[in-house]
UniProtKB/TrEMBL annotation:
The keyword Cell division does not apply. The keyword Signal applies. PANTHER family: CONCANAVALIN A-LIKE LECTIN/GLUCANASE (PTHR40081), TAT PATHWAY SIGNAL SEQUENCE DOMAIN PROTEIN (PTHR40081:SF1). InterPro entries: PcRGLX/YetA-like, PcRGLX/YetA_2nd, PcRGLX/YetA_3rd, PcRGLX_1st, TAT_signal. Pfam families: PcRGLX_1st, PcRGLX_2nd, PcRGLX_3rd. This is Tat pathway signal sequence domain protein. Residues 32-108 form the PcRGLX/YetA-like N-terminal RIFT barrel domain. PROSITE patterns: TAT. Residues 120-477 form the PcRGLX/YetA-like central beta-sandwich domain. Residues 483-891 form the PcRGLX/YetA-like C-terminal alpha/alpha toroid domain. Residues 1-28 form the signal peptide. Keywords: Signal.
């Protein structure tokens, strides 16, 4: 019996989905989309940006959109295109709103958008850019050190001289050595670009480097400033690139600093820090509570509330006449040096002793300084997760306070980016391969460098008219920790087929489906729990997970070569994003978001000769000498970019378009190549698996985004697809000679077999599914289906069709998805049954592993559970496609 168009392999994904054989016409293109908040309706005014997908051919490129609330009222909105289908129709649109009173949901559809009552406006002048939200105004100068020169609320200057600050320390002193001198740097602006001009949202990009008083520069940066109509806040997305080899020139402090004019008497000035669960340090610069003499209940109540105090002439004069003897606390610091501890201290002024104020576990990262005539609330997202961080307030007893949001706290000591061992004699390739065989670390001298890695942080500034209430500060802290995010329904993500049809909804309708869904949930919950219990936090580390578990020590192998940080090995990024796409779960989205921020920045080089390549898993994120496309691949970033329209992620995607040029400077298989290899731009050796899939994802993304290199990207994508298809063994060939100028592989005349267990495990399944869905190229589909059919095929099948046996391959369970994909496309029940069997018994697992042994309900202790998960890592990472593949239908094939 052949598989019908409505029948697919239920056993693998065990979830009903739209068959890959259905055409877009099988779905009624929705004219409207109902959007909901990821974590539920925000409690206060919200600003958000999101992307919505559309079916191929359904929405014209120039379509305008309108947004309505449940009561039918029009909501002001700003829209822009994100991506297009090959036929020119709109594939993804981006939208932004700023609502004072959020509704539970919104409906997006064609129409004319409503205009905001107070649109944001931008004036791009020769020397500066002025932005006005209708509530606040900001000036951004195009030269100098000030990223934001002034922020006004009405006619009141709220903040000024906003700049980046940095402390550089040449070396890290050892125990017996004295400390190293710290040199001060500030931002030096080289370029300012207005990217969006309103009416709902304005975006200004500021680029430059950090510069010392002696004229030395380092740490290139890119800052985006986001303004919204009617909003009192500015969102700051801060990115810097580390441009040193890590052995010296260490970051001893990195932050954003600005000055806050203070006009009120000291007793009407206030400092606030929000800790956990809206717990708060709330004090006045000059406190008049708790004194030996009582100024009066009304006076005390006003100061506690942060409102204007009555005239001192109305107080008890025993207090009024002695105000000069009450200390004024001008300096405050909140330091979060670990994930589980913060401290708050204060002093009257520089040169005087610090007094402990409070301690806690995990601060929200929000502070405030100002008075009854205005002030600034400021904060850093992922404050405790990205430790060591710090919030500083200085000189609050003077006419102008200084505020610094430290992304790297100067109290923590210099950032240690030095490589962690001396090489241990691994000077030659054979010695390095021996090291790989024992620690799984691919070491090579000079390759364990952080030169070119990056980190992006998100900050917020609120220019407020007066000291906010405790409740208002709590709301600000909530939005800082979890920014409001509108999302599309799962049905929209499925029916539009924007990710190649590889999305299946969560379904527990029969026991087989329920079993797989329960295991998927268990694995996610387990890894989320491990982040917390193992403290996988820190400035460079947050967002990543560990690779393998050491059952003897009952710890993850954090110190054993390539078994330590995962760095996207076997695509956990895909597992998480497909988990979100099919469920809409907020906890999965936030986990995937943190991983995307990490892997796209820290695990990938953005400067230098390796720009566009990522680093294989290791003890340090940059330690391994394997610098490859499989880590930097655009396939990992596309989800977050399209779902949120995040501009920084768009930058990362653009960086990868020309990464084929990295093959001129680094041969990925240099240590195992048996013949001499000299890079030739017309004959670059590129693998058809992890190498090509990464390049193809970048080219496809540039083409559909219609970026500046879209024409070239399209030509390279189609050219490589055509020339892979023309190879006698297609993808089974394993590699080819690529011409950098023509974007095509050289002709291959003989059948060659070179198959790796890793080729399809880093997004190749996903990218090929998208391309087959997008491009009518039967020969390419045939080549890919051949690979899918034969990877888990028999020796006889492989030899008969390709001329040679593929060898003793592993990760067969994960590759069951390839068999299933071929079953769907070819409508073959024999492949469907085989895929089901491979899923349950691949890689020699007994019938009890991994799915029949149920850790969800078992009595395994924590170490045994960790061993189970680590042993079955292929189940975890391979599930990126199992759960997302359109494999199911009306019948269930039992194992």
């Amino acid at each position: 019996m052949e598989i019908s168009r409505r029948t697919v392999l239920a056993g693998m994904a065990a979830v009903p989905v739209v068959s890959l054989l259905d055409t877009p016409a099988a779905f009624a293109a929705p004219s409207e989309v109902k959007l909901t908040w990821l974590e539920g309706k925000p409690a206060t005014a919200a600003v958000t940006n999101w992307g919505t997908p559309w079916p191929k051919g359904a929405v014209p490129a120039g379509q305008s959109f309108a947004l309505t609330a449940p009561d039918g009222s029009a909501v002001p909105m700003q829209s822009r295109p994100l991506a297009y289908w090959p036929d020119g129709s709109l594939k993804w649109s981006a939208h932004a709103i700023a609502v004072a009173e959020p509704a539970d949901s919104y409906t997006l559809g064609p129409g004319t958008p409503a205009a905001p009552p107070h649109p944001v406006t931008v004036k791009d002048e020769r020397q500066y850019v002025d932005v006005d939200t209708g509530v606040i105004r900001a000036r951004i100068r195009k030269h100098g050190s000030e990223v934001i020169s002034q922020i006004w609320r009405g006619d009141v200057l709220i903040a000024r001289q906003g700049k980046l600050v940095n402390l550089r320390q040449e070396r890290i002193p050892e125990d017996e050595e004295s400390g190293s001198v710290r040199e001060r740097y500030e931002s030096d602006i080289t370029r300012v670009t207005v990217e969006q001009t309103g009416p709902v949202r304005a975006v200004v990009r500021v680029e430059g480097r950090h510069k010392s008083r002696k004229g030395k520069t380092w740490l290139p940066f890119s800052i985006r400033l986001y303004f919204a109509a009617g909003a009192e806040n500015v969102r700051i997305v801060h990115t810097f690139v580390y441009d040193r080899d890590g052995q010296k020139d260490h970051i001893a402090g990195l932050g954003v600093r600005f000055r806050v004019p203070l006009r009120d008497p000291a007793y009407d000035r206030h400092v606030r820090f929000v800790g956990e669960n809206h717990g708060m340090v709330a004090e006045a610069v000059k406190g008049i509570t708790g004194l030996r003499r009582d100024p009066g209940a009304v006076v005390r109540a006003a100061q506690v509330a942060g409102t204007k105090l009555p005239d001192p002439s109305t107080w008890d004069q025993r207090v009024t006449t002695r105000l000069q003897y009450i200390p004024e606390w001008g300096d405050y610091s909140l330091s979060q040096l670990t994930a589980d501890g913060f401290t708050v201290k204060k002093r009257t002024a520089k040169g005087y002793g610090w007094i402990p104020v409070d301690q806690g576990r995990r601060a929200s990262g929000l502070g405030y300084v100002g008075g009854v005539s205005g002030g600034v609330a400021f904060g850093l997202r992922d404050f405790w997760q990205r430790h060591p961080t710090q919030l500083d307030i200085r000189d609050a007893a003077t006419d102008e306070a200084e505020v610094t949001v430290w992304l790297w706290s100067p109290d923590a000591g210099p950032m240690d980016t030095r490589f962690y061992h001396d090489g241990m004699g691994q000077d030659t390739y054979p010695e390095q391969l021996e090291g790989l065989n024992i620690t799984y670390e691919d070491y090579e001298p000079g390759f364990g460098t952080p030169y070119g890695i990056a980190r992006t942080s998100e900050l917020m500034l609120w220019a407020v008219a007066a000291t906010p209430t405790v409740a208002r500060l709590g709301d600000m802290a909530d939005q800082l920790r979890v920014p409001p995010q509108l999302i599309n329904p799962v049905d929209q993500l499925m029916s539009t087929r924007v990710f190649g049809g590889l999305i299946s909804p969560v379904d527990r309708s029969v026991p087989a489906k329920k079993s797989i869904e329960d295991h998927l949930d268990f694995l996610f919950d387990y890894y989320r729990g491990q982040v917390e219990s193992r403290h996988w936090y820190g400035f460079w580390d947050y967002g990543d997970v560990m690779h393998s578990f050491d059952e003897d020590r009952s710890v993850w192998r954090y110190d054993v070569g390539g078994y330590a940080w995962d760095n996207s090995e076997l695509s956990p990024d895909l597992w998480l994003w497909y988990s979100f796409l099919r469920s809409g779960r907020a906890d999965i989205f936030r986990f995937a978001e943190a991983m995307t921020r990490h892997t796209g920045e820290v695990d990938v080089y953005h400067l230098g000769k390796w720009a566009g390549l990522g680093t294989r898993h290791g003890v340090q994120h940059w330690a391994d000498s394997a610098k490859q496309q499989r880590i930097s691949t655009a396939i990992y970033r596309r989800f977050y970019y399209y779902l949120t329209a995040d501009e920084r992620t768009g930058d990362l995607l653009s960086e990868l378009v020309d990464s084929d040029r990295t093959f001129l400077v680094l041969d990925p298989i240099r240590k195992i190549r048996t013949e001499p290899y000299t890079p030739d731009p017309h004959a670059l050796s590129i693998g058809l698996g992890t190498d090509w899939s990464g390049l193809a994802a970048a080219w496809l993304t540039e083409w559909e985004r219609q970026g500046p290199k879209a024409t070239i990207a399209k030509a390279k994508l189609l050219g490589t697809m055509e020339t892979i298809a023309a190879m006698p063994n297609g993808f089974v060939t394993g590699g080819g000679l690529y011409d950098l100028d023509t974007g095509r592989f050289a002709p291959v005349t003989e059948k060659t077999v070179s198959v790796s267990h890793l080729s399809a495990m880093f997004g190749q399944v996903e990218i090929c599914a998208e391309l087959i869905d997008l491009v009518d190229m039967p020969a390419f589909e045939a080549a890919w289906l051949q690979y899918c059919r034969l990877f888990n095929g028999t020796r006889a099948e492989q030899t008969a069709e390709c001329g040679a046996y593929f060898g003793n391959l592993i990760l067969r369970q994960g590759h069951a998805r390839l068999t299933a994909y071929a079953a769907v496309r070819l409508q073959r029940d024999d492949l469907a049954n085989r895929a089901w069997k491979e899923f349950y018994t691949g890689d020699g697992y007994g019938p009890g592993l991994p799915w029949k042994a149920d850790p969800v309900d078992s009595t395994l202790n924590p170490t045994e559970v960790a061993k189970w998960v680590s042993t079955n890592a292929t189940a975890l990472y391979g599930l990126a496609a199992i759960q997302s593949l359109a494999l199911v239908g009306d019948h269930i094939v039992n194992p």
